[in-house]
Amino acid sequence: MGLLDTTNKEYYQGNDYGNYQFTSLDDIITQFQIAYVGEGKIIQKVKRADIAFHAQRGLQEFSFDTFKSIKSQQIDLPPTLVMPLPHDYVNYTKLSWADSAGIKHPLHSTNSTSNPFQIMQEDDGGYSFPEELELVVNGDFSAPTLQFSTLPPPWGRNAIPQINNYATQFATVKVFSEVLTFGHRTRTSHGDTSGWGHAMSCWQLIDVSDQDYVDISATGSAVDMTNGPGVLRFGLSTNPGDSNTRNLNNQTYADSGTNHLPESFDLVGPNGVGSYIEWRSSDGTDVSKELLKVDVSAYDKVYVLIVSYQEFSGLNGTFTTTSTIDNVSVTNSYASTSLSANIGNEAESSTWNKYKAGTPSENQDDYQDDTYWKMNGNRYGLDPQHAQANGSFYIDPRLGRIHFSSNISGKTVILDYISDSLGTDDEMQVHKFAEEAMYKYIAYAILSTSSQQIHQQLAPRFKKERFAETRKAKLRLSNIKLEELTQILRGKSKQIKH
């Protein structure tokens, strides 16, 4: 029976090209059971869960130095000069920026600077353990936003619900004049003709591992619209805002999200009440509110959560700014016992701020004369690692971010990185050139961890076979082509006969 279960038409009209090169990890496990496990075979009995564990470990190990498991991401570097590490990042292979012709220019790692944890100190230089320490970064929303309708990091927010483009927005979350501002309008869709809207939210993850109780406060306002009152809430939650922002009156054809529910704020406030404060249908005047001694003793990290929505009861679709909030604050109720970050430098130390504010000498020549002689040819004592014109970067493992030199701002940055092939089910596959190596890896792993004497005697044999098959897989996957090799050698004036 053939292995192909799709027709030519299904394949060429689909988008899963080249899939015949690979075998899924689930098939590898099943075929290993058939060939290696059972009466009269090398392994008499083993659980499928054990095979799956060793198969996943083998897939990880092969991904690092045998498989072609390099992924890539591209962004336009924002003015913050920071790029988050991908969610399935293990290590990088190369960072570069692309010019107007699409040519990649490699960036070079620098070890001459970093973004250290900046400790809060007293005036005399001693370490500070303050009471009422601010845990929210940029709670006054004074940091510049990156573009329209975005929030400065580390704030996150829902995607803006809209049709096709920004010309038709049903809700917004943005910073305007250093105040977080929400906007709403009614909709009639999803089988709901009574008029409904979106419950928008934004959030920030904070560290409360050193705290038992915290105090929260903010200044906010919520206003009535002609077809429904406004509601604004601020508090603490174990989860960020729900990506489903719908707040439907009729849920026959679609479901609402959870942002509008008070239960979203699921920590315990004083006297057992909810962990949030609320503004409801004020006259638009800013009102300051606070909630003291919210219990966070059971958590290391919680989310600061802000929610805004309208209780729509009519069909007026006019877009209106309905809620604003500012001076968002979460402070420790009692004096801290751990080192704290200096206020204003929670995520960005003064060392990093100075580095990104500088103008490096790289990338300044326009290459009009095809030369790069800044010193008129006098390059005595030049450090080769700095003899490049593309820019530099370093990785901050504490915060999981990549920092770039200022001359890369606005450029298209490309990150090539290694994953372990376990991020999604679709990634868990083995190239057919390495299929036998995977079987030998699993067999050796099971035999070498078994206490049975016969397995211990077989383990050295399979160790050698695993090594040999892995070496063979590397040679196959290196994809060396004779024509390409000879062409390269011809370019080096080597005479090749074949």
What's the topology here?
Blueprint (H helix, E strand, L loop, with lengths): L7 H5 L9 E3 H12 L11 H18 L4 E7 L5 E3 L6 E8 L5 E3 L1 E2 L46 E2 L4 E2 L1 E5 L1 E6 L2 E6 L2 E3 L2 E7 L1 E8 L5 E10 L7 E8 L8 E2 L28 E5 L6 E9 L5 E10 L9 E13 L17 H8 L34 E5 L4 E4 L7 E7 L10 E3 L3 H14 L4 H25 L4 H10 L7
Parallel strand pairs: 6-22
Antiparallel strand pairs: 1-25, 2-24, 3-23, 4-5, 4-24, 7-14, 8-9, 10-11, 11-21, 12-13, 13-17, 14-20, 15-19, 15-21, 16-18, 16-20, 22-23
Helix pairs in contact: 2-3, 3-5, 5-6
What does this structure look like?
It is a single chain. This protein is α+β, with helices and mostly antiparallel strands. It starts with 7 loop residues before the first helix and ends in a 7-residue tail after the last helix. It is globular and about 85 Å long. Strands 7-14-20-16-18 form a five-stranded antiparallel sheet, with no helix packed on it. Strands 10-11-21-15-19 form a five-stranded antiparallel sheet, with no helix packed on it. Strands 2-24-4-5 form a four-stranded antiparallel sheet, with no helix packed on it. The model is unreliable at 362-373 (pLDDT under 50). Helix content is 18%, strand content 28%. Helix 3 (48-65) packs across helix 5. It has seven helices and 25 strands. 30% of the residues are buried.
Q: Biggest β-sheet, characterized?
A: 5 strands, antiparallel
The average pLDDT is 82
Specify the number of helices: 7
Q: Pairing-aware structural class of the strands and helices?
A: alpha+beta
**Shape label:** globular
Q: In which range does the helix fraction lie?
A: 10-25%
- According to DSSP, the number of beta strands is 25
Strand sequence of the main sheet, in spatial order? Answer: 7-14-20-16-18
Termini Cα gap: 40 Å
Round the Cα radius of gyration to an integer and report it.
29 Å
Low confidence ranges: 362-373
Estimated share of beta-strand residues: 25-35%
